Amino acid sequence: MVSLIAAPKALCLVADGLGLPTSTLSYQDLSKAVASVESRARSVLEVGEAITKNIGSNESLASSLEVLGIVDAVEGAARPFLSPIGIEHSGTVSGLVGARQEQTGSVMALIDYLASNAKPGFPARELIGATQSALDSRAYMSTVERDKSFASTFGPYLLGLDTNRAAIALSLEWARSVKAIASKLPPGATRALMGTQAKEVAIKAGPLILQANDELASYKEEMASMGHWGKLDWMAWGGSPMPADAVSRLESAKTAVTSLLAWSKFLASRDDARELGVSDLLNLAESGKLPCEFLVSGFEFVFYKSLTRGIISTHRELSRFTGAGHERLRADFAEMDKELIALNGAMYAARVDKAKKPLTGVSAGRAGDLTEMSLLSKEVKKQKRHVPIRQLLRRAGRSLQELKPCFMMGPLSVAQYLEQGQLHFDLLVMDEASQLRPEDALGAIARCKQLVVVGDPKQLPPTNFFDRLMDGDDEDPEDAPSVVDGVESILGICEHLYRPVRTLRWHYRSRHESLIAFSNNQFYDGRLVVFPSPFKRSKRLGVNYRYVKEGVYQDRRNIPEAQRVVDAVMEHMLTCPNESLGVVTLNQTQRELIEDMLDKKTRDVKGVAEYLAHHEGAGWKFFVKNLENVQGDERDVIFVSTTFGKPAGSTSVRQNFGPINRPDGWRRLNVLFTRARKRLDLFTSMLPTDVQADEKVSLGRRALREYLDYAKTGVLQNVRGSATDREADSDFEVAVADALRQEGYEVEPQVGVAGYFIDLGVRHSERRSEFIAGIECDGVTYHSSLSARDRDRIRQEVLESLGWQGRIIRVWSTDWFADPRGQTHRLLDFLSARERLSLETPVDDFEDEIVKDFEPELIEEVQVVIEKAKADDGGAAPELDEPEVFADIGDRITYETLDGLRERHTVQIVDSPSNLRLGLLNDETPLAEALLGLKAGEESALHVPGQAPRRLRVLAVIRQAQSLYE
After folding, report:
1. CATH class for domain 856-958?
2. d(Cα 65, Cα 48) in Å, to the nearest integer?
3. Which of 334, 362, 559, 752 has the most neighbouring CB atoms within 10 Å?
4. Is residue 507's pLDDT more than 80?
């Protein structure tokens, strides 16, 4: 029983050697387990017998298995370096053993061959490495032999393993030596010393070199002997001269003897300059990198840049300065300054109000006994039967002064209402003092402690003429009585008594410099500060000349001229309702005529009444005045009727111009010419040549002639337009202008006419009569201002009121020095934006300076035949809402040619000489005569000698002061 239990375990031990499972669970069925083990044992025995048979009959099964293990080991070891050998299936073991034995024999034979050719004691591994190197050398030699460059270089000296390596190495060393000194050898020597005949060449060259060295030593001694003539710095002369160029260089020196003195001075100056530390700048000039003509400017650039950097680093406030920050500071200052002025006014008003101490006065008794506040309280409640003003001021004057400390009165009112000794004032301010007689002013002066007198000695003095006396044409100006003898006005007395006289020089009422330019030049000696306009010439700004060709002066009147003025007044009221207007005549008779004509023509005209009411309510009432009564008035637009002209049937103008001929006549004209804020239209029947003026005539008559010429031509002696031809005030302005010119902009320095100039003006690319921008630099004009208020607020506001709003940009020198490129881009962006905005303004508002027209020589030959139907002169006047405009002198006319290629041209007809470059056409030329009288849409024919007739059509007639009736 025990044997049966241990049977499975015993079977496991037998099965392990036969390659069967060794788990006892596989042998629980003993009968099947024994059969399985027996079957496997029988199979193994058969395999062993088969192996023994193949190995040999003398071998046992155990030894046969050992042989198979050895064969397997040899197979594994030989597999990496022996090629595989196909073994047939039959006799596998013996075949494999035989094959491996054969291969082993071959390897041993190779080893025996190598051993017989190797040196004694040389290891087999090193022998095999040497053999591999030999094979690599043979392959490299084959590559070298196929390389054409080696063959061409070494030629027959390349003999494979027989090559003489030492000879080639020597040749290469020779070549390196020759190459090292090649730069010092004469041309061709290098090639000769590297050629096949190098040895022979070297042998021959040796003695020659020794001889050359000796001669060179003699040459140097000879050159050194020249030292007693002076110091020879060959290095400064391009290095020591070689024999090849010594003769030519010495000959050059000999021929340049005349330049020796200048050269020596240059050397001395250069030595001095080097001691001052400008060697780098001199080296740039001597090397040609800096042109000699820029040497001074280059030094100035370096010097001033270094100086500026030193100043900025020393003064920290400059290094911290930025234009953007300062602009914000200026804006804050301007706002605070205006606020401070308003607060000061409120503060003083509060102080005055707080200090009021009106007297109660007599409050009981009869009404005639009441005084001071008691009287005033009673008078305020009354509706009628008030106490006379003189009596009121006598009885309640002190209380009135407490309530209203400022009185505004004329000199006659002072004498009429203020009894002597009743009221006294701390301060008296007299305005328009040039028209106040001394005797009229004394009453007011006697009632005050302090006196301020304001007036213009260049304007009208006091007058006591009646109007007819002033208008007398037959009066001899030499016999005309003067107003007063001696001093004319209280202003004249004060000028003599009180020194110095303070002059108010700023003139910013006129919105265009041409309105004040004549008076500033003629009467104020150019001392007024006039602010420039951004427009050189505009339809709505400046002085305009309106010639009345048909004017006739008779009975101190000029009816055609008055008619033109009336037409212009009506047109202005209907087309420019927001601009105030005044009319001035040179005598009272012409004034009355214009008033009568206006009264008749404006009746029931829609728009006129509204215009009059609007401006009267605004405080700028329309007026018609003669010359003597207009002082102190100003309006947006002033129409002037000069009145005088040729009498009927006469070809010349009488030279009696009333009060203008008198010694003070020029003052009247000064008043007349300075009344307009925006525009002055001069209606006149006189040409400048109609007024005769020489050195003997009065200043008034000369001024009249010169003003007629100025209004007609726009040119005044010693007075320029907006472009003054002045030089820039500083190099800073020049640098800014040059930077903009390089970008294609037209820049003009110092834009203005008198006193104040914008540093740089930039013209519009298409409308040259317009400045698109004004550039202010912090130069002389800025830092010479006496107050920050003038410098940073008032001047800017005045310029903006004249049309520069949005056109002014400021460039600060510190910003420009630190970043000129960035500031240039900032300016370019501003100018680009301004140009786009300017293009949105209608072109018709500006006078074009350049207008295309026919060639000058062609115009002179044109014969015009007008083919048009003229309107009946006696017909009804056109409707006021749509007036027809017929071409007249002063109008800009646009027309086109109808034959062939249509061309459009624009000209302005003037009674001055033609200037085709400016598009100005004299009214007596044939072309002007053809266009005069035409209206838009009408045609005429031109006949040019030698050419077919050409038809013209008028497209537009643009008038600066358009007449409603023709």
Report:
1. alpha beta
2. 8
3. 752
4. yes
